Amino acid sequence: MTDADQTKSRSGFGLRPILQGLLVAIVIPAAGIVAGLVNFEARDALGKLAESQFRTVAQGATAKIHEHLGAVPRGLREIEFLLSHHDLNLSEHDDIKAHLLTQAVAYPQGTLVGYGSNEGSIYLLARRGEFGAEILEDGASEIHRAHAGAGSNDYRNSEWYKRGLSAETPEWTKTYEFSNGRAGVSAVMAHGGGEAGAPNGVFHVDIPLVGMEEWLGKMKIAGKGHVFLAHHDNTIAAEPRFNGERDRKFDELLKSGLAALDRSHGPLVGDEIESIGFKHRDQTYHIAILGAEAIEGLDWHVGVLVPEADILKLANERMTSTVLFAGGAAVFVILLGALFASRLAAPLRDVTRQLSEAARMQITDSNPNASMVREVATLGEALGAMKSGLRSLERYVPPEVARRLVTGGTAASIGVEERRLSIFVSDIEGFTGITETLEANRLVEELNAYFDDMTKAIRERDGTIDKFMGDGILAFFNAPQDVPEHAAMACRAALVSVEMTEAAVADRIAAGRPVFRIRVGLAVGQVLVGNVGSSDRFGYTVIGDTVNVAARLEGVNKAYGTRIIASDELRGEAGDGFEWRSLDRVAVAGRKGGLPISELLGLKGEVDSERLARRDRYEAALGAYFAGDFRAAAGGFSTLAASNPDDKAAQVMADRARELSEAPTPEDWDGVYIFRSK
Predict the structure, then answer these.
(1) 403 within some domain
(2) HEC string for 103-122
(3) C-beta separation of 531 from 524 below 8 A
(4) Given 187, 211, 276, 657, which is the most exposed site by the fewest CB atoms within 10 A?
(5) Domain boundaries, position 386
(6) Which domain-ending residue is among 311, 342, 377?
(7) Which segment of 127-131, 450-454, 457-461 scores lowest on mean pLDDT?
(8) Is residue 598 part of a domain?
């Protein structure tokens, strides 16, 4: 099956998504309608909720204002009353100072209480310490200058004094900066005058607002919102102080908010509230001004400044239960539907997955999940039977061939192609004798275990097993899939196979099991590979002279006492990752012409130096042999055979060279030894 066919077959939607989609299409709009109604109600309630909280804050701020400033108007009226009824006399300085001292103790820390006459004399007391007040000498205090006009030390030029002259009742100045750099406010009231004439002077109380500002800094509303105080004309009366200092950024923000409010229509009365949203530095805020219970003569409102996001959060907190209920109901229905869809679709999805895997010949032993739907259960049983059949197919034909047959999407047919393959032929040494010592069943068990190991060694190196021939194996590399380094892979498979069987010899002897030693022949060349047989029964196999050469070389191992012999052509294609010994030049049965052959010793870097040294001496003697110097060749081979009796090849070549040295060198000498038998 082509990629386009697979893509086409996967088009459309799965059953589970369809069922879930239908459910969501019903539930989500319903939940959306509920959420919309809830949101509408929440938005409507937002203003009321915010106003309610703002009023609560305003009540607290109003109480603080009264605590801070409330006693001042009463104190001014009291002293004026005493003076007008002659209970006090301004000429009695000590009495006046004593009375002012009593009043100062009742006011906040840092408050100044005094009287300035129109003649230029002033009484001034400062609230100091926890319980007392301090009388400041006339003209000696630096505080005097805070009450003087610009450029003059005469307090009669100051704004508070001028305003106080016309104040028949207590009046308040706007917030201004005292000489110490702190913000404060003054309450003033004229003494004397009225219908009788001009006032004699002005009583004043100067109250610092540091404590009020610090208290405002601690007040929080809706998360990051703050409380402030404003005059009726929308100028700042008192703003929060954070960690003892004003925040310039907040001051800028507050001024921006007050500018957005339209306060041209006078003070707010009772529960009146004015609010507006505004933007500052790409963020939206909400500012509100509320009426406050008035202190005589004081034109202050309470204000709040809150990020809009905090107000929305406040509203969202109130509507959480409703949203959770609607959302929870929707989620519950969706989950219930998803569970139903999953229970229905899971077995089908599993069947689809296993069918897709089977189409790629990735067959597992797992069976499809059981289904409560009868038709789906029947489909799963049919899939299980099909997988058993495909597993059987893999055991009768090479897995690569079976995979091509199944995934190709077309029926198999007779036909071959010419390809360059590396051929692998192996056989068990002395197998005929082994068969005579074992019962048939035991022999089959041993062979099956041997074939399992050999099959693993060949397949792991991308080889394809053509057939098992008694105790022999025919395999090839580079078909049906391409194997770029197929000659090297064939060599590696041969080395692993020999090492595996040799390593098991001791254990097999100890266990009383037959010893399997193998011989391998390797060759490379152009062959025909494909489906060969009759029209109704055929197999994937390889045909060609290279196959015969590999089979003959496997048998030649017996003559030289070697395990792996390869043609020099394969040796050249295998690369330089192996160690070889040039063995001989032979003509095998059924093939004309000489064939250089080599013994595969092992991987480069893994063959011991002594064996490589013997290899070099052997190849030196072989060079003399090919050159026709049989005496030198015989001497070299004989010395090598004497030092290593297990080297049968050296002994064979020594005998052959010695025999040739006793007769004249043939004129057509080419070094080729002809094997007459297979």
Answers:
(1) no
(2) HHHCCCCCCEEEEEECCCCE
(3) no
(4) 276
(5) 361-396
(6) 311
(7) 127-131
(8) no
Q: Is 334 exposed, middle or buried (0-12, 13-18, 19+ CB in 10 A)?
A: middle
Averaged pLDDT for residues 347-357: 64
**164 touches 198 (CB < 8 A):** no
* Nearest residue to 477 (alpha-carbon basis) of 548, 425, 415: 425
554: amino acid identity, one letter: E
Q: Average of pLDDT values for 187-200?
A: 76
Q: Are 489 and 464 in contact (CB under 8 A)?
A: no
Whether residue 449 sits in one domain with residue 392: no
**Mean pLDDT of all residues in 533-537:** 83
Interval 283-302: pLDDT, tens: 888 888 887 666 877 878 88
Domain edge (last residue) among 575, 596, 615: 575
Residue 137 has a pLDDT of 47
For residues 567 and 586, what is the distance between their CA atoms, to the nearest angstrom?
Answer: 10
Task: Please indicate, yes or no, whether residues 192 and 322 belong to a single structural domain of this protein.
Answer: no
Residue pair 250/226 in contact (Cβ under 8 Å)? The answer is: yes
Give the number of domains in the chain.
5
Q: What is the CATH number of the domain that holds 249?
A: 3.30.450
Dump pLDDT digits (tens) for 619-640. 999 999 999 999 999 999 999 9
Rounded to whole angstroms, the Cα distance separating 288 from 54 reads 8
If asked whether residues 488 and 388 sit together in one domain, one would say: no
Closest to 262 in 3D by CA, of 252, 275, 251? 275
Half-sphere exposure of 176 (CA within 13 A, CB side): 13
Q: What is the CATH number of the domain that holds 166?
A: 3.30.450.20
Q: Which comes out higher in pLDDT, residue 244 or 245?
A: 245
Residues 437 and 508 in one domain: yes
Mean pLDDT comparison of 103-117, 203-217, 263-277, highest-scoring range: 203-217
What are the Cα distances from residue 190, in Å, to 107, 123, 146, 159, 300? 20, 15, 19, 13, 22
Nearest to 467, CA basis, from 532, 415, 360, 540 = 540
Same domain, 381 and 282: no
Which of the pair, 278 or 1, is modelled with greater confidence?
278
Instruction: Determine if the peptide bond prior to 480 is cis (ω within 30°).
Output: yes
Classify residue 583: in a domain, yes or no. Answer: no
H runs (alpha helix) in 124-232: 143-146, 159-165, 210-218
Give CA–CA dist 415/233, Å, rounded: 103
Instruction: Return the percentage of the chain with pLDDT > 90, whole number.
Output: 35
Q: How much of the chain, in percent, has pLDDT values that exceed 70?
A: 72
Q: What is the mean pLDDT of residues 48-69?
A: 76
Q: What CATH number should be reported for the domain holding residue 485?
A: 3.30.70.1230
Residue 205: pLDDT over 90:
no
Kindly state whether residues 434 and 561 are assigned to the same domain. yes
- Cα separation values, 37 from 244, 317, 324, Å: 46, 16, 14
Within 8 A by CB and 6+ apart from 50, the residues are 222, 275, 286, 288, 306, 311, 314
Return the amino acid letter for 197.
G
Answer yes or no: do 510 and 438 share one domain.
Answer: yes
pLDDT for 38: 55
Q: In this predicted model, what pLDDT tens digit does every residue of 578-618 receive, in sequence order?
A: 999 999 999 987 677 889 999 999 999 999 999 999 999 99
Do 89 and 200 belong to one domain?
Answer: yes
**Alpha-carbon gap, residue 127 to 104, rounded angstroms:** 6
> Does the residue 616 lie in any domain?
no
Higher-scoring residue by pLDDT: 79, 145: 79
**Number of neighbours of residue 21 by Cβ within 10 angstroms:** 12
In tens, the pLDDT along 134-154 reads 555 443 333 333 343 434 567
Residue found under tokens 């330089």? 576
